[in-house]
Amino acid sequence: MIDREGLGSPEQQKRHLWIVVMGVPASGKSTLAEVVAERLGFIHVPEFKVEDDDLFTRYYENPQKYSFPMQSLFLFNKWQQTQGSKTAGILGIRKLLEEVPIISQPPIWQDALYARARLGRSPEFSYYKGFYEGLVSANSFPTPDLVVYMRISFENMLARIEKRARENEARAPELIEKRTYWKKLWKFHEVWVRRNLGNMRIAVINGDLFNFSRFKEEEQAKESLLQEFLHQVRYHLVGPLGKESDPPEDLIIPEVILNHRPANIFHDITPGLATKQRLLQRT
Which strand (E) or helix (H) includes residue 191? Predict the structure, then answer.
């Protein structure tokens, strides 16, 4: 991955925190990001709402024809979100980080997983790969400080996709998709996380525990999810509970993270972590 040089000016010794949320469709990325933004004061840079575009329906009706333009649209949008664009009126994460902590979704390399799952070994994937590498390998493209992977089981992913599509008419085209595609996409995410655990800071949250139907009230579910987020971020950016804090010297880490101590544990996983991140939060 690219190092984080260039996020601030040479005079700026410290910079704000940038966290990205990654995960398969319907894994809870948006829910987590919205809760963090609402309760911790992060700025949320959301995922591109492709369902608002006519291309979304055509893509699922004829993926062979529309996959390349669809994936290219996602990729360029993510690049604009990060770098900014005066023409499109997008300030960009790089600029926002001068003032506030950011939580965004998903990281730009997740787009390549979608493209690989859809385009496979086709000539279009070679073109896409060249486009992707040209954007992402630029020396000025930053890497986030922490990746939060919302990990859910394959069957739970299918159930959530179906539920979302039936509740939101704009997502209905996803019901056309074949199970084999979803399986491939899920597997690519799992493999990517395991391969990159030693290359960057990756926190794994067991999203299966946060099906809101498991909780009596939605507010309780959100609070439980937020506590898990705080446990994870503190562990990866400040240090394990019970040991001396050791945050990166170049980061401005919000006090709510620096001073976090678990009060009530709603589930049975995070505090302490380690041991290969508790076997990827119980695989």
Answer: helix 179-196
Phi, psi dihedral angles at 142 (to 5 degrees): -80, 160
Maximum mean pLDDT: which of 192-201, 213-222, 257-266: 192-201
pLDDT of the residue at 229: 93
Is the Cβ–Cβ distance between 138 and 108 less than 8 Å? no
Spatial CA neighbour of 37 closest among 109, 96, 118: 96
Reading the block at residue 258, the tokens are 């620096």
Q: At what angle do helices 123-136 and 108-119 cross, to 10 degrees?
A: 170
Nearest to 132 by CA among 74, 83, 92, 210: 74
Contact in structure between 245 and 253 (CB atoms under 8 Å): no
pTM score above 0.85 = no
* Amino acid at the residue 91: L
- Residue 129 corresponds to which amino acid? K
The string of DSSP letters for 148-160 reads EEEE--HHHHHHH
Helix (H, G, I), strand (E, B) or coil at 180: helix
Q: What angle do CA 81, 41, 222 make, to 5 degrees?
A: 100
Q: Which structural domains are found in the chain, ordered by start? A: 15-282 (3.40.50.300)
Q: Is the pLDDT of residue 11 over 50?
A: no
What sign does the CA torsion over 114, 211, 271, 277 have? negative
The pair of structure tokens assigned to 176 is 């056309």
